Amino acid sequence: MSTTQTNKIEIIESLTSKIKEVNFDNLSFGSVFTDHLFECDFTNGEWQKPVIKPYAPFLLDPSTRVFHYGQAIFEGMKAYKDTDDAVWLFRPDENYNRFNKSAVRMAMPEVPEEIFMNGLHQLLQLDEAWIKKGKGNAMYIRPFMIATGTGVIANPSNDYKFMIILSPVTSYYSGDVKVLIAEHFSRAANGGIGAAKAAGNYGAQFYPTVLANAAGFQQVIWTDDATHTKLEEAGTMNVFFRINDTLLTAPVSERILDGVTRKTLIDLAKSEGIEVEIRPVLVSELVEAAKNGTLKEIFGAGTAAVVSPISGFSYQDVYFELPKIEKSVAIQLKDKLTNIQNKLEKDTFGWTVKI
Ligand SMILES: *Cc1c(COP(=O)(O)O)cnc(C)c1O
């Protein structure tokens, strides 16, 4: 290993690369990682010297707080390579700000912008060969933080580890996605952690999702916990409904995660002349629109899949199949967005940031 020092980050380069073992045409989402990771520890009330080093497992004491009390947060973002081999991020400030919001909600220390952004930039530069060009190809970036203090004492940890790992991905088609509208389970509640990208939110939604899978549905559409009458999110994505030619999506709240894809699609749709209404969307109006034929589309929105069209939904044991649409708004917006992200179309919004 060779050790160099740049911009205060210690860089320990791997002497070998795994890149030749990877089939970039057949990547299963989030399962392959690059040669390096970024790491910065928080101890004695301070962020310590950051390091980039070879990707490898690490040891933790069995009493480490994250295992017992779940102080764990993450982000999901992507980097793209253009036809001139330049690498671009998409609205990285949004992810950085949201990461620290999540940190505050979980009583974890905020990560300084310099550590987050410099770490991200230098890690991407080092593993740049892993970023492939072309529509749909991207580097999925997973910044995360865990409580590393020891002792089974139910208090916030004094020690934390912030890391960034990278996973090359290609665009994926989720196939037919049928969803079940939640009538009992909830993803989030007022006063809870639904607006934070906290690991526990995901753990808590696995069980209802497994039950939905067993009933023949790929995902759950979450409703508000108090009344189960308002449509809030689809699985781990924000959700849009198209009734006639209007797109509807719920306003973000304590229960609804402020997705970057969601806010981007709202702006894109408006710029394409599509009417967008941001307001609570009722289960009853969805059922009504499905019955009278005005419901045209439902789709999820998130960084991983970008846009994920839904083919039908079930509510109170009645299944409603959506019409098959030739030129869906979902695909129109997905095309537009991935073209901007992959720099195949001009970014008039100023969303893309060069590495
Ligand atoms: C991450 C996430 C989203 C999507 O956010 P993006 O910033 O668009 O990736 C939506 N809902 C939940 C619950 C999430 O965790």
Q: What does this entry look like structurally?
A:
The protein has 355 residues and is of the alpha+beta class. The protein folds into two domains: 2-169, 2-Layer Sandwich (D-amino Acid Aminotransferase, Chain A, domain 1), CATH 3.30.470; 178-341, D-amino Acid Aminotransferase, subunit A, domain 2 (D-amino Acid Aminotransferase, Chain A, domain 2). Helix content is 24%, strand content 31%. The protein is built from seven helices and 22 strands. The chain has helices at 65-69, 92-105, 113-126, 199-214, 260-271, 283-292, 329-341; strands spanning 2-6, 9-13, 36-43, 46-47, 51-54, 72-74, 77-81, 87-90, 138-147, 160-169, 178-181, 219-223, 230-234, 237-243, 246-249, 275-278, 281-282, 295-302, 306-310, 312-315, 318-321, 352-354. The strands form two sheets. Strands 1, 2, 3, 4, 5, 6, 7, 8, 9, 10 and 22 form an eleven-stranded mixed β-sheet that branches. Strands 11, 12, 13, 14, 15, 16, 17, 18, 19, 20 and 21 form an eleven-stranded mixed β-sheet that branches. A hairpin with a 2-residue loop joins β20 (312-315) and β21 (318-321). α5 crosses α7 (329-341). The longest helix is centred in the middle third of the chain and has 16 residues, at 199-214. It is globular, with a radius of gyration of 21 Å. The two termini are 25 Å apart. The relative contact order is 0.14. The model has no long low-confidence stretch (mean pLDDT 96). The structure holds pyridoxal-5'-phosphate (PLP). The site of pyridoxal-5'-phosphate has 13 residues, from β14 and α5. It comes from Flavobacterium omnivorum. Keywords: Amino-acid biosynthesis, Aminotransferase, Branched-chain amino acid biosynthesis, Pyridoxal phosphate, Transferase.
